[in-house]
Design goal:
Layout (H helix, E strand, L loop, with lengths): L7 H4 L5 H14 L5 E2 L11 H12 L12 H15 L8 E4 L2 H12 L5 E5 L5 H8 L3 E5 L11 H7 L4 E7 L11 H12 L5 E5 L24 E6 L12 E4 L2 H12 L7 H12 L3 H21 L15 E2 L19 H12 L1 E2 L1 E2 L9 E4 L4 H16 L3
Amino acid sequence: MSTSSLSQRVQQLAESQTIGMAKLSRELASKGIDVINLSLGEPDFVTPSHIREAAKKAIDDGFTFYPPIAGYAELRKAISAKFQRENQLDYKPDQVVVSTGAKQAIANVVLCLVNPGDEVIIPLPYWVSYIEIVKLAEGKTVAVNTTVEADFKMTAEQLEAAITPRTKLLIFSSPCNPTGSVYTREELEAIAKVLARHPQVYILSDEIYEHINFLDAHQSIAQFESVRDRVIIVNGVSKGYAMTGWRIGYIGAPKFIADACDKMQGQFTSAASSIAQKAAEAALNLDNRPTLDMRDAFLRRRDLVIEGLKKIPGLRLNQPKGAFYVFPDISSYFGKSDGTTTIHNATDLCMYLLNTGHVSVVTGEAFGAPNCFRLSYAASDDKLKEAVRRIGDALAKLR
């Protein structure tokens, strides 16, 4: 028996490099090496106490049976109310589907919309799983390149040039993983005007980092009436409420898409965890102060990291307006060596930083941007200061 017995479907999938770097970090740490792991997109805060208490109460109240596939009615009502309260969007509870994390929500939508050969437009850099999920649906990714000088954002003109009669779906995130870029209302309006001319194109708007946004207010492309009936919003509680391990994501979508995702999910995982759903309900309905405090902490950390990285020669940076990532262009170090290791690409540089500087970051190749790496600043101030120092010292050895 060998891997050749496996389906082509799984053989063509790439392993998540964010998870892979975290694994390498743990292996070094197990040998007693002090590694600062900045590879995972995970808040370092503990889930707020009122949310944890809601989960304990749910256990005591007997929420231990199968929930409805699309989620408890109370949670879907809370999500519907959240859309209205925070985004001024009218997604009824029957247009909401709760899933085991936002990743499953994205997979549900793509598998329900994309046929073999359909084109899916994805701006680069992209979150690692977007194109792998499109592969599973046998769709074709059409990448739109962006640059650090353009704040890693796709323009309306670039989108128009990428659309063909085979285009079925646009997938993008704002705030963006891995760049931290945030689309303004004006930029989204220009994109919506393009999409209004192409009614066959649906829009999957990944808004999981909505609450880690350093601008005045979060902007969703669903606010524009010309495209609203084709927008699927993906969101969840992982990032804004420090609930990564609870695994609750959700969509707001046109009802026929929500119904299709309910059907699809019913054949894969069925409903998300009953206890986690009740915790998510509390997160959406109760005190939002911890989320605001976390956002403020991330903003402070962003400034700390940007200030330090700007002092390192050869790094080109944008100013992230959200999420908790910095995505520097490090191509000026390609071809350099410390006398032992030669840096040919971003993956080499990330391995060099891990083995020499003992800092774990993720190669930009994982995100479709081979000149960059992603650094997560979801860590304590002291760890971030030390990580930036180590990166600077390691890069200074390259000539």
